[in-house]
Amino acid sequence: MCVLFPPDIKSNDFLTYLDQVTSFMDLRPADMFVFVGDFNLNEFDWYQDGSDSDLKPSVLSEDPYTDFTDFCAYNSMFQFNGVRNHNGKVLDLVLSNVNSISVHRSDLPYVRKIVTTGDQHQM
């Protein structure tokens, strides 16, 4: 499932989404799930703990961060993306209840740079 939360999402809306996904997952306990996208949880600092392939978040005791860590714990979801941007932040998350996923940085750009000249955009 692809996910994109706007930076200004209300904590209640975020929690409602997590609750609805949890209800859906509870109906399918044997299924495998993968969530990829921008949860806009920019305050988390992701780090590897031991030899596990998943990453753990820094602990933040405020919503929506506590809601997110509770969601992951309840649903046995792990976060696998450790690729950092130029500011050293992990922006997009790869969550799964399957503990055998790996994420790697590509050497190839996904989107060509856009060159702007005046009012025109060129690729």
Automatic annotation (TrEMBL):
<dbReference type="InterPro" id="IPR036691">
    <property type="entry name" value="Endo/exonu/phosph_ase_sf"/>
</dbReference>
<protein>
    <recommendedName>
        <fullName>Endonuclease/exonuclease/phosphatase domain-containing protein</fullName>
    </recommendedName>
</protein>
